[in-house]
């Protein structure tokens, strides 16, 4: 059987009316969180996913295929989701808020508890290999926000450094879980940066008047 190319897994999930593919991918994530990848078998994936072996082998020929699909699915879901989170929101600060809320929620929902205690190598490899894609997705989602801030302060922002810092900060919660207090700070970032930009803009206006 010809395998579906990994970049198409996210699309396949969206069009799979039976929901089997999503069950398999979500079940695999749960299984990885409890037993890691080394001991994981196709039988374990079936049990965790609640699908038959026939259904599993309809889409995957090996555990390695499943793991590759899971990695690509998580990454492509993030890329699509964070961009969609801000789409259609004209107000730049509201867009910023929506993107930040999505990012915080996605990291919590898509990261099994104790992933680094159970299977550090698999997850470290995933994070390292997908880091730049995550950063690029954040940059796309926040493009209009950066445009707004730059128009206020009258100078360019180092967008790459900003997005790099954002991704690294969010990934740190996989090691030290986010507390409600930390999430409150994370979600308040748009308002804090907006205040900062407005202060600079007002200062520049006062300077010109003086």
Automatic annotation (TrEMBL):
Gene3D superfamilies registered for this protein in UniProt: Homeodomain-like, Tetracycline Repressor, domain 2
Pfam name, any one: TetR_N
PROSITE patterns, sorted: HTH_TETR_2
Residue ranges of DNA binding: 41-60
Keyword RNA-binding: no
Keyword Transcription regulation included in the entry's annotation: yes
Keywords: DNA-binding, Transcription, Transcription regulation
Location of the HTH tetR-type domain: 18-78
SUPFAM superfamilies: Homeodomain-like
The name this protein goes by in its record: HTH tetR-type domain-containing protein
């Amino acid at each position: 059987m010809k395998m579906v190319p990994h970049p198409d897994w996210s699309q396949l999930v969206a069009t799979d009316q039976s929901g089997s593919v999503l069950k398999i991918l979500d079940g695999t994530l749960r299984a990885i969180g409890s037993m890691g990848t080394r001991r994981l078998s196709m039988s374990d994936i079936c049990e965790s996913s609640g699908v038959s072996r026939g259904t599993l082998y309809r889409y995957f020929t090996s555990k390695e295929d499943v793991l590759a699909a899971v990695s690509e699915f998580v990454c492509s879901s993030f890329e699509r989701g964070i961009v969609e989170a801000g789409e259609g929101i004209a107000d730049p600060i509201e867009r910023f808020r929506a993107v930040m809320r999505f990012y915080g929620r996605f990291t919590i929902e898509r990261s099994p508890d104790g992933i680094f205690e159970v299977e550090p190598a698999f997850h470290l490899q995933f994070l390292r290999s997908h880091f730049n894609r995550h950063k690029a997705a954040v940059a796309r989602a926040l493009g209009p926000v950066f445009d707004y801030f730059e128009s206020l302060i009258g100078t360019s922002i180092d967008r790459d450094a900003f997005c790099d810092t954002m991704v690294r900060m969010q990934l740190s919660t996989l090691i030290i879980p986010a507390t409600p207090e930390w999430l409150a700070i994370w979600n308040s970032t748009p308002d804090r940066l907006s205040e900062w930009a407005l202060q600079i803009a007002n200062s520049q206006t006062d300077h010109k008047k003086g």
